[in-house]
Amino acid sequence: MPSSIHDRAVLHNGVQMPWIGLGVYKAEDGDEVIQSIKWALEAGYRSIDTASLYNNETGVGQAIAESNVPREELFITTKVWNTDQGYEKTLAAFDASLERLGLDYVDLYLIHWPMPGKYNETWKALEKIYNEGRAKAIGVSNFKQHHLEDLMRDAEIKPMVNQVEYHPRLSQEKLLAFCKEQGIQLEAWRPLLKGEIFEEPTLVELADKYKKSVAQIILRWDLQNGVVTIPKSVTQHRIEENIELFDFELSNEDMTRISALNQDKRNGADPDDPEFYKQFE
Above 90 in pLDDT, residue 281? Predict the structure, then answer.
């Protein structure tokens, strides 16, 4: 369990990944994303999570270039979008992402969604990128257990990370247990459920008990469950607040109370919903 901002999750290939990062989904390319990253780096963040879908890789790259943080201290994640899946298209999409970011390599490259009939071929492209050293780690996003099992049957390299929707309303305990058993690091997107659970009485009570914000209580729950977390914000005080997680610890009882809020409720798409994928065919 991380006890310091400097602690790292160690992926199964030995790569060290910060426990908390800045998500930049819907952060506008240009000044907004650049400024939010600068605030994050000043606050001690070293992990930035973007994707080709977000249309802000150029701004992310500019913020990195303008920062005084050495590249080797940063952990940059991006993802291949659904319309770019398939072996050759993924290789081309990765090259385009690297160019927009202005980087020689990324620290983590992910398949954004398990596109039916495509993700195994896409994974072969990620394995090539990894073997060439252009991604220090590779993984997937929004994969359920059956997707992972299917992928691993044919894979030469096991995914290092699975980034999924994860918050107190969707605690994904079986998936988390499976990933831990397989040595796959689970990572939470939308960990704060866009603020929709900030009025939840249990969380409000715990925030008062620990003299922390509700967001900090949720993010600490992530970390104590062994889940890497990437809250999104473009507001300086929230960015700073979201990383102040290492001066308190939730009791086992309070961890259980938060987990009991689970309703298996998704805010984003269900990775098994065929209707979701039809738009990308």
Answer: no
Tell me how far apart the alpha carbons of residues 126 and 80 are, in angstroms, rounded to a whole number: 10
Per-residue pLDDT at 30 exceeds 90: no
Residue 12 in marked binding region: no
Indicate which residues carry an active-site annotation: 54
Please report, for the chain, the start and end positions of each structural domain, with discontinuous segments joined by +.
8-278
Q: In the beta sheet, which residues pair with residue 18?
A: 8
Share of the chain above pLDDT 90, in %: 95
Q: At what angle do helices 57-66 and 31-43 cross, to 10 degrees?
A: 50
CB-facing half-sphere around the CA of 114: CA atoms within 13 A? 21
CA-to-CA distance for 206 and 217, rounded, in angstroms?
7
- Pick the closest to residue 112 from 28, 176, 47, 54 (CA basis): 54
pLDDT, tens digit (0-9, with 9 covering 90-100), for 61-93? 999 999 999 999 999 999 999 999 999 999 999
CA–CA separation, 128 and 124 (whole Å): 6
Q: For 195, which DSSP code?
A: G
Q: What angle separates helix 173-182 from helix 145-154, to the nearest 10 degrees?
A: 20
117: left (phi over 0), alpha (psi -120 to 50) or beta: left
Strand partners, 17: 9
Listed residue (145, 263, 264, 147) closest to 202, CA to CA: 263
DSSP code for 20: B
pTM for this prediction = 0.97
Q: What whole-number distance in Å separates Cα of residue 13 and Cα of residue 16?
A: 9
In single-letter form, the type of residue at position 54 comes to Y
| pLDDT(1) > 80 | no
Q: Are 84 and 52 in contact (CB under 8 A)?
A: yes
- Domain 8-278 fold is TIM Barrel (3.20.20)
E-assigned strands of 124-248? Answer: 138-141, 161-165, 185-189, 228-229
